[in-house]
Amino acid sequence: SGLFVQIIITAMSFFGFGQSADIDIVLNDAETRKKAEHKSEDGRKDKYFLFYDGETVSGKVNVTLKYPGKRLEHNGIKIEFIGQIELYYDRGNHHEFVSLVKDLARPGELTQSQTFDFEFTHVEKPYESYTGQNVKLRYFLRATVSRRLNDISKELDIVVHTLSTYPELNSSIKMEVGIEDCLHIEFEYNKSKYHLKDVIVGKIYFLLVRIKIRHMEIDIIKRETTGTGPNVYHENDTIAKYEIMDGAPVRGESIPIRLFLAGYEMTPTMRDINKKFSVRYYLNLVLIDEEERRYFKQQEITLWRKGDIVRKSMSHQAAIASQRFEGSSNPERSQSQSNEEGDS
Amino acid sequence: MTESAVADTRRLNSKPQDLTDAYGPPSNFLEIDVYDPQIIGVGRSRYTTYEVRMRTNLPIFKLKDSCVRRRYSDFEWLKNELERDSKIVVPPLPGKALKRQLPFRGDEGLFEESFIEERRSGLEQFINRIAGHPLAQNERCLHMFLQEESIDRNYIPGKV
User: Fold this and answer.
1) Chain A 143-172, CB below 8 Å of chain B: which residues?
2) A209/B4 touch (CB, cutoff 8 Å), yes or no
3) Positions of the region Disordered (chain A) (predicted)?
C-alpha cells in the first residue's frame, strides 16, 4: 500500500493537486537601495536594484505554501547569487563567472509557510550588467525549492554598475589626416577617456580644402564584438549623429566641437569581458561633399562611469560656472588638456 | 585634478584665421561647361559634337582653362576606362537613344533640338561629377578627355 500511496501522490502532483509553493525574494535594503533602468532583450526598459562591486547582498526568501495545512516535501532549499554571460547564438551555454550558493534548509518538509534569511557578504561583481545585440551579462539571485519531480524556483535580477575614478593619464587626441592634394584636416578632441556624462570638446582645423564640402558631422559608433578566434562577430550601431558644420569651409578655418554625452544611451567601454565579448566606442568624423561622397576618420574613445558625487552648494557651483565663461581669454587650461601625444 | 560638478566646455585654442585665407579665392574651383552642339558630316553619317570647356584652379590639372570638342561616344569611352581602371562608382550617362537612330521617325531623330538639349545637360552633369572625384582625378584618361585636343584610343592607361 506504500507504493499505492506513492503513485497517488505522484499523480496528484502531476495533475497539480499536490502541494506547491510561491517563492518571493526580498532584499533587506529594498526601501533604501537605488534602482537603475536597464533595457531588456526585447527593448523594454525596467528598473532593477543597483549594486556595486563588493557590496553585500542580503535579504529574505519567503516560501508561501499554496494550500495551507498540506505538507510540502522537498529535497533542500537554497539560494544562489549568479553572474553569467549568455551569448545569443549559443543560448544553451551560460558562462558563469560568479556562482555563490547558500543552503537555507536541508531536505525535509515544510508544514507551514516560512521565511529564510540569507546574506552573501562582500560579493565580487567584476563586470557591469549588459544587454546587447548578441550577448547578455546579468546578475541575479535564484531561490530554489528542490523536489523529486520538479523544482520550484524564483529569480530576482539585479543591475551592477562598475565605477571608475578620473583617469590619471587622459591625453588629448590630436591628428592630421587627409587625401593628398585634396583635403587636409587636423582634428583634436580634448580627451581620450570620457565619462558617460562628459562633454567632448574639440575642433577641426582645415589645412587644405580642394573639394566642395557640404557638411560635416560626428557620429558615435558602438561596436559589440562577440566570439573568439575565427568566429569573431562585430555588431556596429550608430548611437548618435551630430552635425558640427553646415556649408563649405575654407583653408585656415576652425570648426568647434561640443558634444554632450549625457543625452545618449551608452555603457562604459568593456574590453574582453571574461574573454567573451567587448563593447567599444568610436568617434567617426564624417565629411560629405556636394556629390554625397563621404570622407571619414574613426577614432576610438574610452568611456567610463563616474560615481555620483554629493552636490556642492549652489554658490560654489555658480562660482565654478562663472570661472569657465570668464576663462575664454585665459590661455591657461586645466591639466587634462595639456599637450601630450595623442593616443592613436 | 579636482572634480567639479560643472563640465569644462571651453573651446580648444585655435589659430586665428588668416585674412588671406578668409577672403581669398577658393582653392576648389572646378567648372565644366558642355555647350554649343554642332552637327558634323552629312546624311547617315552625321553626328553631334559638343564643346567641353573646363575652368579650374585645382593644381592636378595642367591647364587652368581648356576647351575641346567631344561627341557622345567619347563620353562612353571615358566611362568605360574609368569603370575598368578606377575604384569609383561611375555615374550614368544620358541614354544611348538607339530608337532615335531608326529610320521613318516623324521627327529629326538624333538631331531633334529637345533631345540634343537633354543629352547636353546629362553630359554636363556626368563630366562635372566625375572630374570632382579625387580618385578620378588620378586617371590619365580623364586628363586626356578634358585637356587634349583629340583622344588617342591607343594610349597607355595609367595614373597621373
Assistant:
1) 166
2) no
3) 320-344
Q: Is residue A4 part of a domain?
A: no
Distance from the A86 Cα atom to the nearest Cα atom in chain B, whole angstroms: 37
Cell of A182: 585634396
CA B18 to chain A, closest CA, distance in angstroms equals 7
> Does residue A62 lie in a domain region?
yes
Question: Cβ of B63: how many Cβ atoms within 10 Å?
Answer: 13
**pTM to 2 decimals?**
0.82
Q: Residue holding cell 519531480? A: A149
Sort out which chain A residues have CB atoms less than 8 A from B138's CB and list them: none
**Which of chain B's residues have a Cβ under 8 Å away from the Cβ of A331?**
13
Domain membership of residue A214 as a residue range: 173-304
CA distance B40 to A186: 52
Domain count, chain A: 3
The ipTM (two decimal places) reads: 0.80
State whether A200 and A146 are in the same domain.
no
Q: Which three cell numbers stand for residue A113?
A: 509557510
Rounded distance between C-alpha atoms, residue A190 and residue B9, angstroms: 10
Which one of A208, A250, A324 has the shortest CB-CB distance to B6? A324
Spell out the domains of chain B, with CATH numbers in brackets: 26-147 (3.30.1520.10)
Phi, psi of A311 (to 5 degrees): -70, 130
pLDDT tens-digit profile, chain A (344 residues): 667 777 766 666 566 567 889 999 999 999 999 999 999 988 899 999 999 999 999 999 999 999 888 899 999 999 999 999 999 988 888 999 999 999 999 999 999 999 999 999 999 999 999 999 999 999 999 999 999 889 999 999 999 999 998 888 999 999 999 998 899 999 999 999 999 999 999 999 999 999 999 999 999 999 999 988 888 999 999 999 999 999 999 999 999 999 999 999 999 999 999 999 999 999 999 999 998 899 999 999 999 999 875 444 445 555 555 555 554 444 444 433 433 333 33
- What is the least distance, in Å, from the CA of B95 to any CA of chain A? 21
Cβ-defined contact of A254 to B21 (cutoff 8 Å): no
CB pairs A-B closer than 8 Å: 96
Residue ranges with strand state E in chain B: 30-40, 47-56, 65-71
